[in-house]
Design a protein that fits this description.
heterodimer, A: alpha+beta, 4-stranded antiparallel β-sheet, 13 strands, about 60% helix, B: Four Helix Bundle (Hemerythrin (Met), subunit A)
Chain lengths: ~650, ~160
Amino acid sequence: MAIAEMRKVTIIGHLADRAAITGELQRAGVMELEPIEEESESGPDLDAEVNPEIGAVEQKIAELKFCIDFLDKLERARKSLIQQFAGSKIPVDLEEFSNMTRDGGWLQPVHSQCRDYDSRLSALRNEENQLQNLLKQLAGWAWLDLPLDELEGTRHAGIVLGSVASKVYDDLVSEARSACDGLYVEARQSSDRRDVYFVIIYARQDEQALFEVLKKYEYTRHQFQGLAGTPRECMEATRLRLDAISAEREGILGEARKLLSYRTQIYAMYDSLSLKRDRLMALRQTVVTRRAFALRGWAVSDNIPALRDSLVKKFDSIVIQDEPPAEGEAAPVALRNTSVVTPFEAVTEIYSMPHQDGIDPTPWLAPFFFVFFGMCLGDVGYGILLTLLCVILLKKIRMAGLGKKLFVLLAISGISSALMGAVTGSWFGNLVKVEPLWFNPLDNPLLMLGVSFALGLVQILVGLGIKFGMNVRRGRIADAVFDQGFWFLLILGLTLVMVGMQVKAGGISTIATWLAAIGALGLIATQGRANKGVIKRLASGVLSLYGITGYLSDVLSYSRLLALGLASSVIATVIDDLALRLTGIPVLGWIAMAILLIVGHTFNLLINVVGSYVHSSRLQYVEFFSKFFEGGGRRFAPFRVRTKYIDLV
Amino acid sequence: MELTVGTILGFLGIALAVALPGVGSAIGVGLVGTAGSGVVTEDPDKFGQILLLQVIPGTQGIYGLLSGLLLMGKLNVFSFGKPVLLTIPEGALVVMAALPIAIVGWFSAIHQGKVAAAGVGVAAKRPEELGKAVTFAAMVETYAVLAFLATLLLIFGIPIKGVA
């Protein structure tokens, strides 16, 4: 019920069994491999054998990836929003999987077909772009009744095609005419009236003068190389070619779609080869002698007996040793909790894995997270809806790891919301009018604020208590009493003083004042203990009392529970009010009401689930963890069957 | 029916509470959306995760609307055409009550948008660490929540008798 006990496992076996044993370890998936530091003495250099094999496998994986990407572009594998979060894999049973991946003969032709289609498609795309640009260029010249291949001019006369901004065209022509004699000019405005397209025929001796004028007005020269016929004919031909291109593309796409039937097989092959690569990588972590090999790694101690049994049964003369981690050795961290608490590991894992020597905060934060989420969402209808949604999704989509934990967590949180909604009398806002079991926070927000602060205080005190326990366990009794014990007394005392002032019970106040005083004096006396000299010690002891502001702001932070709770229930109420007003209109009003209710409540639910989750987590991370949590552990990542597309069932 | 200056002030308060955080949220959500589109072009499957980041700076607008709605209830706006006639001090109190969420909502939404937009990079490169990016953005929200809380308590505390 906390951090799982890790042990270091060493396996020694026959060299001949090396590949088989790593395969078995991958199937078992309970051991994280680690390279062995010691130099092997005289073994053969097997890496030289393994490395090229890894290269070959990776080459094939890259080819498959190309096919997968190509087919994805052809027809996107549809994924729902939820699947984008939770991941979606194709379920395939083990036998079918090995049938699909046994013979890889199809891979080469399929891959070269994909390559071929891809390059043909991109060639077509390039040509299409060029033609479309040409079409745009030609569009301004439709009026020109000259074949474009006869625009070379003669020995004495030149011809130039160009365009210029409409507003300067007249100036250009008059200046050109004054610079050169006997110009022949024909022009048309473009369809958007921004430019004028012109043809000028000029005498060769005027060429330089004319082009100087043209340049001055920043004209654009239009040249059509390799085109025959009038612009109109060229456009016609271009359009025909474009039609042909799209027909050709359809043809290629049609051919390519036939490859879609290979898709699952490609996925399976990809995963199968990735698994093989993982196994080969694992081989590199072993050390070998001429006859034997050794392999080392970490495993959770509960899993070791089963692993030992299965290996010993399959391989003779195999030696499996396990030992606790050496002093100061960084063992990976895995969390182990009861099934009710396990989903809450998601909250911890998103923050950080606890340090190997620290403690797992999950069982401690679970009840607080449960209550906080409920207070933030706080509605019977929303709670039930959230739980139902999550349960359905968990049934429909096979999830694993963090994603699964998260959805189970939300399902549990939905129950909490429903309970809290019953307490505050919120049933889809006030759609269903039910008296609250306790009180409605809208009627008495200050009481709810008090409840939020009280929960915050409890959580902070629990946090101090956990750190107290950690220090005691490590034999640092003095630290535990001085750093946590006195704060605990001071905070508890001050709180009780305030409570005492409210309820005016003298007895409480006296005891509370004494508690606070002991705590404060204790802190003054001990918080400066790292310093030398009485005065310095006392000074930093007094200064440490300033830390009370930190605790104060921590407690105030829990006021968000009230704010978020009101946000979700008031908006729900407003949606109800607006919707019920619509029922005044006959028939249509009822339909509009139903639509407004469904859309409004769905929106409100989604927004508030995000808010409730985030803020309930934040209270754990910032206000709770800061009291005791030691993070930075390395997540236990066992060598296992890890696939990307296929879910092996 | 004669309107009072107090009622006009009251309506100003409602307008501020709804409008300013709404502007902030629009800017914040816009920032994340612009950053997110780039990622979705590369990998359309990231849409869900980026949408999650994008809604985060949207909450300020909701807090503003919610404050506005509560004020409308207080001023009896929902009984069409017959709002409570406020005295000038009462109207001024409504404006004051609206100010915390109006100001803090406005600015925090923009800054939260910036943090969430930076988180888009996390969604693109390390999608498994998305929770951390969301948490960073949620840190900014704290102040919007606190301001919203102050506005709420102020609204509950406004004594309204109206013009007799």
